[in-house]
Design brief:
Distance between the termini: 56 Å
Structural class: alpha/beta
Number of helices: 8
Shape: elongated
Number of strands: 28
Bound molecules: adenosine monophosphate, magnesium ion
Oligomer: single chain
CATH topology of the largest domain: Molybdenum Cofactor Biosythetic Enzyme, Chain A
Number of domains: 4
CATH class of the largest domain: Alpha Beta
Helix content: 10-25%
Largest sheet: 7 strands, mixed
């Protein structure tokens, strides 16, 4: 009915296509403020300012070989060895006509030399060296000053992910501390009267809280600070207080449970009171009831209670948001074309089946799903390294057919 569609309540409850839901999440996510942190803490962060080389690298002309530093214009067949220059402090050595300096890889070139003859092309005779090389060119086996990085050059741009080589580059240029985007501060709240701690015995009707632990593990793979993690009972006042506190000190608040249609689905109601809700349901399986709201700068994700739904929701919507907050430019995992290893029966929503994605000899990606795909069955996630996306349609998907997939872990090889 048109009157129903016009009501804001109905629009909030409208099932969003996953792409539309993701767009809403992305639209409400922005990089956090910049902070300066020690270089040794930068791995996994994103650079928040362009880096210009303050100095040349190498900072002096350096030998790339073990050998002898010589002057290329000197034609003496043998030369007197005047000393040894190791990689390290500059010694008081000079190459004059008829002289050579024994030099090691990475050592500074002594004055008077303009080439290095590699050790393999020489012979030693007492304190002399015989050069067995017809032509010596100026610059042979020398890394000129600034040849790796010239002073003043922009070496890394804002938005670059700081992995091992970037960290090494910053270290080699003496950039410490480094400007990066702040880590998101995150809270994880499991809700439900039925939840007990993993190390506690189960009373009748109770289950152990698994969501908090799976989500903490998922968060552990991203640069975030978890500032609070715990559980709350199905009690409106208690949960509302908890959420207010976490909104005040977090950039992202994750809850699980309490968002479906049951009487105790309090999170949905509390988010409606405390925050601006952007959507409540996604046209997907698992994890249809997924609430996304914002309060000021804080993002709130009301993830479903079912353990698989909570993790799939995290992967599809929370992880991209956390990456954007952390300054990443590539926030969303790419979609890949994968070939089904077996037939799949579609469902009435866009199904995200847990799968093992591997590359065959022909270089194709092949996906096999991981057995029963119930949203409470965490075992369907273990042993998987990705998701295959199976939209609804009126006929089954057949083995060999190509569908979209998302790699969540390392790509496997078909043995
Ligand atoms: P709810 O959305 O609160 O109705 O929860 C849906 C289902 O997920 C119920 O079977 C809950 O018992 C289960 N569930 C909720 N929270 C958790 C949790 N933290 N760990 C494991 N299962 C949960
Ligand atoms: Mg519940």
């Amino acid at each position: 009915m048109s009157t129903e569609l016009a009501s804001p309540m109905t629009d909030l409850d409208r099932m969003r296509h996953p792409a539309e839901a993701l767009e809403l999440v992305v639209a409400h996510s922005a990089p956090l403020p910049v902070e300066q942190i020690p270089l040794r803490a930068c791995a996994g962060r994103v650079l928040a300012a362009d880096v210009t080389a303050p100095e040349n690298h190498p900072p002096f002309p350096a030998s790339t070989m073990d050998g002898f530093a010589v002057n290329s214009e000197d034609v003496s067949p043998w030369r007197e060895i005047v000393g040894v220059q190791n990689a390290g402090p500059v010694l008081d050595l000079e190459v004059t006509p008829g002289m050579a300096v024994r030099i090691m890889t990475g050592a500074p070139l002594p004055p008077g030399a303009d080439a290095v003859v590699r050790i393999e092309n020489t012979e030693l005779a007492d304190d002399h060296v015989i050069i067995n090389q017809d032509v010596i060119n100026s610059g042979d086996n020398i890394r000129p000053i600034g040849s790796d990085i010239a002073a003043g050059a922009t070496v890394l741009e804002t938005g670059v992910f700081l992995g091992p080589s970037e960290i090494g580059l910053l270290a080699s240029l003496g950039i410490d501390p480094v400007s990066v985007y702040r880590k998101p501060r995150v809270a994880v709240i499991s809700t439900g009267d039925e939840l007990v701690e993993p190390d506690q015995p189960l009373a009748p009707g109770m289950i152990r809280d698994s969501n908090r632990f799976s989500l903490l593990a998922a968060l552990g793979q991203l640069p975030v600070d978890v500032v609070w993690a715990g559980k709350g009972p199905d009690d409106r006042v208690h949960l509302e207080t908890l959420l207010r506190e976490r909104i005040a000190d977090c950039d992202v608040v994750l809850t699980t449970g309490g968002v479906s249609m049951g009487d105790l689905d309090l999170i949905k109601a509390i988010l409606g009171d405390l925050a601006d809700v952007h959507f409540r349901r996604v046209f997907m399986k698992p994890g249809k009831p997924l609430n996304f709201a914002t309060s000021g700068q804080t993002l709130l994700f009301g993830l479903p209670g079912n353990p698989v739904s909570a993790l799939v929701g995290f992967e599809l919507f929370v992880r991209p948001a956390l990456r954007i907050l952390g300054g990443h430019q590539e926030a969303v995992r790419p979609r890949l074309l994968v070939h089904l290893a077996h037939d799949i029966e579609p469902t009435d929503r866009i199904d995200h089946q847990r799968a093992w994605i591997a590359q065959n000899d022909a270089g194709q990606l092949v996906a096999s799903t991981t057995g029963a795909q119930g949203s409470s069955r965490l075992a369907s996630f273990t042993g998987s390294n990705g998701l295959v996306i199976v939209p609804p349609r009126d006929r089954r998907y057949v083995a060999g057919e190509a569908v979209e997939g998302i790699l969540l872990g390392d790509l496997a090889r078909i043995p």
